[in-house]
Amino acid sequence: MNPQNIKNRDNNKTDTDDELSDHMQLDNLAFEIDAFIKERHSVRAYLPKRVEKKLIQTVLRTARSAPSGANLQPGKFHVLTGASLLELVNALQEAHKCDRPIVEEYSYFPKPMPAHLKARQRAAGYALYESLNIGRRDIEKRKAQFARNYAFFDAPVGIVVTIERAMGKGCFMDLGNTLMTLLLSAKAHGLSTSGLGALANYADLVHSVLNLPADEMVVCGIAMGYCDESAPENNVKTTRIELEEYTSFRGFD
Ligand SMILES: Cc1cc2nc3c(=O)[nH]c(=O)nc-3n(C[C@H](O)[C@H](O)[C@H](O)COP(=O)(O)O)c2cc1C
């Protein structure tokens, strides 16, 4: 991106994004940043290539630059690789294989899930399974693919994200800001990622393997590493709902 390419914009413009892009060069920094953000996607197969600790530290410092209410900066990141990651993966995979009871420390999804959200969840799942040629009724293969969550999708780096138990819902939102900043910084440095909410299903196990302090709650995991471009599951592009479905504009006309 070249900051020299930034062009002045008429502040009163009401054009659509498309019309705007006609007006502006494609190399415009703002559009490059937009495109960069939209290009990020979850990666579920990685190359067996080591990630330098210094690089991860850089990404985590950038992630921490995310804004948070009263600058509380909630959340912690426990970064695992090598034998430390393997120990957690072995424990998680065993738990999944043995149908260990799920111990969630917080509720991620609404219960029950309303139909319109269930449809979005299904669409994302089907897109992944279709990319892998797994039929909708092929329960065994679906289960095997789900088990890959508990191997951090073979990523060389696994991050366990926790939050102080006393934190309120706003602090979860702030941690989300930090997570997204982490995903984008990782991408900027050539790394790929996937969130791993499935990790929280075995929060008690994660606690005991990592010997986490009792006042930390396991929120999710993050798989991080270099993308295996040849893996079909990494070419899935999820869709998003239309702007009109999630926005309202007032006083513009
Ligand atoms: C906090 C968080 C947790 C997630 N947990 C999982 C997970 O457990 N397993 C999985 O395969 N994907 C997981 N994802 C990835 C989402 O399914 C994915 O972000 C979503 O379908 C949109 O696709 P995209 O990331 O490719 O744009 C998670 C994403 C986030 C942000």
In words, what does this structure look like?
This protein is α+β, with helices and mostly antiparallel strands. It folds into 2 domains: 1-9 and 16-39, no CATH class; 44-240, NADH Oxidase, CATH 3.40.109.10. 41% of the residues lie in helices and 11% in strands. The protein has helices spanning 17-23, 29-39, 53-63, 82-97, 115-131, 139-147, 169-188, 203-210, 243-246, and strands at 76-81, 157-164, 192-196, 216-225. Helix 3 (53-63) packs across helix 7 and helix 4 packs antiparallel against helix 8. The two termini are 35 Å apart. Residues 1-14 have low confidence and may be disordered. The site of flavin mononucleotide has 12 residues, from strand 3.
What is the third-level CATH name, the topology of the largest domain? NADH Oxidase
Using the alpha-carbon principal axes, give the shape.
Answer: globular
Q: Supply Rg.
A: 20 Å
Q: For the terminal residues, how far apart are their CA atoms? A: 35 Å
Work out the helicity level. Answer: 40-55%
Structural class: alpha+beta
The side-by-side strand order for the widest beta sheet comes to: 1-2-4-3
What would CATH call the homologous superfamily of the largest domain?
A: NADH Oxidase
Which class of the largest domain in CATH terms? Answer: Alpha Beta
Brief descriptors of the model:
about 250 residues; alpha+beta; NADH Oxidase; 2 domains; four-stranded antiparallel β-sheet; 9 helices; about 10% strand; disordered N terminus; binds flavin mononucleotide
Topology of helices and strands:
Blueprint: H1 17-23, H2 29-39, H3 53-63, E1 76-81, H4 82-97, H5 115-131, H6 139-147, E2 157-164, H7 169-188, E3 192-196, H8 203-210, E4 216-225, H9 243-246
Antiparallel strand pairs: 1-2, 2-4, 3-4
Helix pairs in contact: 3-7, 4-8
The structure holds flavin mononucleotide.
